[in-house]
Amino acid sequence: MAKWLRGLLGGGKPPEAPTTEGALAAAREARALRLELEERDRALANLKGELERARAGESARVAAAVSAEWERLAADAAGPVAQLLTQARLLEAEGKPVQAKDVLAVARRLVRVLQEHGLEAVGAVGDAAAFEPNRHEPLGGEAAPAPGEGVVVRLVGIAYRGKVLRKAGVQKG
């Protein structure tokens, strides 16, 4: 019987026909199990394909969303950037005077656009604050103050949606 099952499952030469009712039942069960395994393998392959398609679709949606966000930022910043480039050209290439207050007004507009898109200032120049190592860094090679120690902001830091990108430069105060 074992030899017959090995031949049936092993795929070698076909087994001799069984002669007993038990052997016939075992052969039917083995065939049913083999079919069930094949069906399970096909279902698994289908599920893997669906998962890959879903991942690819999600990747494409994320890429499209990121691209759209960058396009909105570029569109919002286009006006101030164009004005800054024009002012730079007037001053550098044509030698025409450009008022510092005009450049500052355009720079403020650009900062406002960036803030609308999630950029945040960490502190303001001259502000007194309690030293936070994750938001502040000492200037001028000073030793870092103890957390909570009083400091004065000398250089504004930058954060994006809560994540500090550049720490504020501080001095003990």
What does this structure look like?
- The chain is of the alpha+beta class and 173 residues long.
- It has a domain at 120-173: Roll (Nucleotide Exchange Factor Grpe, Chain A, domain 2).
- It contains three helices and seven strands.
- Strand 5 (157-160) and strand 6 (163-166) form a beta hairpin.
- Helix 2 runs antiparallel to helix 3.
- The model has no long low-confidence stretch (mean pLDDT 91).
Map the helices and strands.
Layout: H1 2-10, H2 21-92, H3 100-116, E1 119-122, E2 128-130, E3 136-138, E4 150-155, E5 157-160, E6 163-166, E7 168-172
Parallel strand pairs: 3-7
Antiparallel strand pairs: 1-5, 2-4, 4-7, 5-6
Helix pairs in contact: 2-3
Alpha-carbon Rg, integer: 36 Å
Overall shape: elongated
CATH architectural group of the domain at 120-173: Roll
Number of distinct helices:
3
Alpha-carbon distance between the two ends: 92 Å
Mean pLDDT: 91
What's the CATH C level of the domain at 120-173?
Mainly Beta
The share of residues in extended strands comes to: 15-25%
Percent range of helical residues: 55-70%
String of helices and strands: HHHEEEEEEE
Low-confidence stretches: none
Record field, number of beta strands: 7
How do the strands of the widest beta sheet line up side by side? Answer: 2-4-7-3
- Major sheet characteristics: 4 strands, mixed
Structural class: alpha+beta
Q: Any idea of the CATH topology of the domain at 120-173? A: Nucleotide Exchange Factor Grpe, Chain A, domain 2
